[in-house]
Amino acid sequence: MIKAALGSTAFFFAAPCVVAGLIPWSITHWHQPQFWPALVLVALGTLIVLRAFTRFVREGRGTPAPIAPTQQLVIGGDYRYVRNPMYVGVVLAILAQSLLFLSLPLLLYGLFAWAVMASFVHWYEEPLLRKQYGPQYDTYCRAVPAWLPRIKP
User: What is the residue-wise DSSP string for 55-96?
Assistant: First the structure.
């Protein structure tokens, strides 16, 4: 579990922090926030990502990184509401920053980032999970939406 926690922490700084932090900063330099209530959405997106990373360590006994995958299919916590909470949280944080700074370039980047993540999920992750977990993953996919969270688990 310690190895999974360390791997997940390293991947957190290498992926979500770059995609939802460093790149948005390079676009806006976080100068002159315009719409302060958007900070709540940035915090929510960040919280969703952190909860997903924790779930990968505790439930999956692995990391979100493709080079050190989980040993079990992760379907608890926020994964009961949406199949891709980590990506949803990252995109939410980016789009919320575009609102915070009223930045069209950041909005366009957020939409591009979502398209890349959705493509990665569709063409790589889903086939891999289907191969790895078979009927368990198919049942999960039928029960839980990919991108728009359902209200009840």
Answer: HHHHTTSS-SSTTS--SS---SGGGGT-S-HHHHHHHHHHHH
